[in-house]
Amino acid sequence: MADKPPAPVEGAAKGVLPTPPPKPAGNPVFRMMGMPNFRFKLPSRNWLIFLSITGSFTTAILYDRYHKKRAQQRWCNVVSHIAREPLPITQMPRKITIFLSAPPGDSIRAAREHFHEYVKPVLAAAAMDWDVIEGRREGDVRAGLAEKIRKRRRKHGEKPVTSEETKPSEESEDLVQECRDKNYVKDWEGVQGDLVLGRHTWKEYIRGLHEGWLGPLDPPPDTSEASAAKNDASPHPTEQLSSGDGDSPASGTLQTSDSSTATADSTKPPTDTAQAEAKKEEKPKTPVLVPPYISTSAYTSAPIAPTTPNVLPPTTILPLPHLLGFLNTPIRIYRFLNRRHLADETGREVAALVLASDVRPWDSKSEFTGNSPTSQERWGPEGVLEGEERDWHKVAWKRYQGEPERVWRNDMVIEPRIGERMRRFDLLVTEEERARKDDGQNPAAKGLLANIKETMGWEADRAVKGWEHGNVGGESE
What we know:
Helix 3 crosses helix 12 (339-355) and helix 4 packs parallel to helix 6 (199-214). A four-stranded parallel beta sheet has the order 2-1-3-4, with helices on both faces. Strands 5-8 form a two-stranded antiparallel sheet. The protein has helices spanning 28-32, 45-83, 109-125, 140-155, 168-182, 199-214, 221-233, 237-242, 249-266, 272-282, 329-336, 339-355, 416-419, 429-441, 443-446, 448-456, and strands at 95-101, 129-135, 194-197, 315-318, 358-361, 364-368, 375-379, 423-426. The chain is elongated and about 135 Å long. The longest helix is centred in the first third of the chain and has 39 residues, at 45-83. It is α/β, with parallel strands linked by helices. 44% of the residues lie in helices and 8% in strands.
């Protein structure tokens, strides 16, 4: 029986074969699981540019952050043994003094953030105690350091010419010291040390150091006369009521009647303007900056204090790079991507202060100007961080009419009697080499790939284990 021919397809031309249905695109496994069709292809030109730029910048940030933490950990490990040393209960810990002030053209927040990010980790690793003298404006650090030195001079027996009232802060400090003396608690007998942050703070530190040891204990007469004139210019309300325009008694009787009417008017409810004026008066006024007790031109003729020690507390000066301005954005980005070098330099100087193993005097240099044979003696502290002045904001260089002394803009003046007593901290070469060597042996500093190679035994120069020595054979042989 012959087979029947296939039925012709409707709508198809005679002699033309039917087209098979198209195959479904994509992986059939993904399609059966309900997943979309993934097509791996090279991104477009714009996407390649975007990913390369963002990826490179992100990699630079992560690389810098990794090495920054590594540098900080290196110097924290160098000083961490000090925190484990026992301290007698009858002895106060070592306390250093930290000086920081607001950079030119900015607030003190920038200096505080720099201290917390770069300086504090090393100090905390060594369990150090510190006291901070801050300056929110130009001249605050100078006045604070000079007043601290004057308190020390008065405590050691120097007396001012004019009797001054004891301040509440000094009374509280005396009470605390008496309590410690009764309990036989002694102060730290070793080196204390000062830490200065930034070139602008260093200038104020030098100015306050000279003012404290070379200046008098009594304030200059200009300040007392200015305060008296200020008080005379703003008399009290009671004086305004009692003073009349004439000298006759009749004027006084008229004022008493006016005062009675004024008291009667005062019983009325205050208006809005009166309340606004009262609120303005309640606002705290900005404290007046204390002028210097001695000028730089009077250093050579001023006698040094008899209680001045032969060696002043050593200092450590740390850089504070702070650059403002939109046009300086490329420089700021470069510094942002290289903060690891700043962390390494800062950690080294702070470790030198904490260890206090090498304290040396400042050297004086002879600087020749031009081709002239005359030489000008310049002390070493004058050139410390001198390059930071180029980054200062233009506000620091502006001149105003009737302005007080500008410590930042003026040149640094060092008197030889003070310069010979100044000291600075330095790190021994052996300690720095030990820190670098220990950092190389730290597993966390080698990196992930190096640790994996060492664990798997893929390194060519790996150390031979103890059980690999001896003859080849079993353990019983």
